[in-house]
Amino acid sequence: MNDKFKVNLITPPRRFGKTLAMSMLAEFFDIRKDSSSVFEGLEIVRNHELCSRWMNQYPVLFLSLKSVEGLDFEGAYGMLQRAVSDLCISYSYLLEDESLDEADRDTFGKLKTCQGNPSEVKSSLYILMRMLQKHYGKKIILLIDEYDVPLAKANEGGYYEKMLDVMRSLMGICLKTNEFLEFAVITGCLKIEKESIFTGTNNFVSNTISSERYSKYFGFTEEEVQKLLADTGFSGHKEEISRWYDGYRFGSVGIYCPWDVLNHVAALQISPDVKPGNYWRNTSHNGIIRSFIDRTDLFVKDKFEILLAGGCIQETICEELTYDILHSSEENFWSVLYLTGYLTQADLNREEGKTNLKIPNEEIRAIFADTVAVWFTDTMKRSDRQELFRALWDGEEGKASELLWNPIASMGLEDRILLSKTERNAGR
Known about the structure:
Layout: E1 7-10, H1 18-29, H2 48-54, E2 60-64, H3 73-89, H4 102-112, H5 118-122, H6 124-136, E3 140-145, H7 149-157, H8 160-175, E4 181-187, H9 194-197, E5 204-207, H10 222-232, H11 238-245, E6 248-250, E7 253-255, H12 258-270, H13 287-293, H14 301-308, E8 313-316, H15 330-339, E9 344-351, E10 354-358, H16 362-382, H17 386-393, H18 397-404, H19 410-427
Parallel strand pairs: 1-4, 1-5, 2-3, 3-4
Antiparallel strand pairs: 6-7, 8-10, 9-10
Helix pairs in contact: 3-4, 4-6, 6-8, 7-8, 16-19, 17-18
């Protein structure tokens, strides 16, 4: 492993195969397994030197944090204890190794039964790594999936600072100058700024969707989709799949959302006449669009019109954020939509540090349209239209126009949304 990349952070949007990739890495490296049959016939086994050096040669700690959430800190912290406990259970045999430090085995036993105190939970990964290194005589490969989910949920639930303290300690102890670490791969949706959670981490490299290093390894490329459709006999559906699920750009590579493509191919196998569906609708982060539309101090609604009409906007993208300041600026809003896959690069040109952004495809356009339509309906329900009717009756065109376009051109936007939906339905 190149020491320049001791800790790799990879942040493609959700539904682009992060967890699958991490499971594959765990299977490939785990010293407890013989994975030759799993990878038989795949490209990687042709690299005999790499497989001899790495396949099933290292202890692996694979921790997923996607379930660490709760309505309050106590609930979320309990889920973290459960995740650590499940990890310990998979290594229960360490309790029988009398060569390991007695204090470590005692702490391990408490962590396994969710009885560890806060300090022990925060240092749990480090303790496990120390025990595994002693047991196997090899350094540890650490895999942490969806590292930012606990922080995102904590921000929504109002306990961000408490969860940040736990996560900073949990990850910081095992990533900073850790003699037991071979290397670490961490995935998430956003790159949390280094000063917030990765302070002092050595040999740290971040790979966002604007990076080239792993751009073609998350999501499906054009060639992969063509092969998938050819193998399943659905090549005739290529155009509609492209229109609905293509359009993303990771680095300089065009990418399809794999979650959508696979779901639609599965649906086609059941019913060959099925139309493309919206598989993103109930995924995480959809609510962030509405949360920003409700802000009256940000001028995002005119730009929504441009995006919904198929146009582009130019915005400054910040790739390092913290969840507690996501709503602090319009720049953060566009950055979050870009980093979470709701917008994508329209091209590779950048002017004065700004990125050209667009809605990637029909699926995401429908989410934007539906979100704005609901906002419009809710806003009109809350508004008092008597003054508007009076202005129309009295022929006060200027006043009526002002009232119609307040709040912020909603009526025109609603008409455009309804027209867009009608056109899409007619196209089906």
